[in-house]
Amino acid sequence: MARIKIEDIRAEVEKDGWKLISDNYENLDTELVFECSEGHRVYVPWKKIRHKRECPICKDNIYKEQDGKIIPKPKGATRILALDQATYITGWSIYDSGKLIKYGTFETNYPNEIQRDNIIKMWLVSMIENWKPDFIGLEDIQLQDLGKKGNIYAADNVVGIQTFKTLAHLQGILMEAIYEKKIPYELCPTPTWRAHCKVNGKTKTDKKRSMQILAKKWFDVSVSNDEADAIGIGKYVSEVAAKKVEIVSWE
Question: What is the pTM of this model?
Answer without folding.
Answer: 0.70
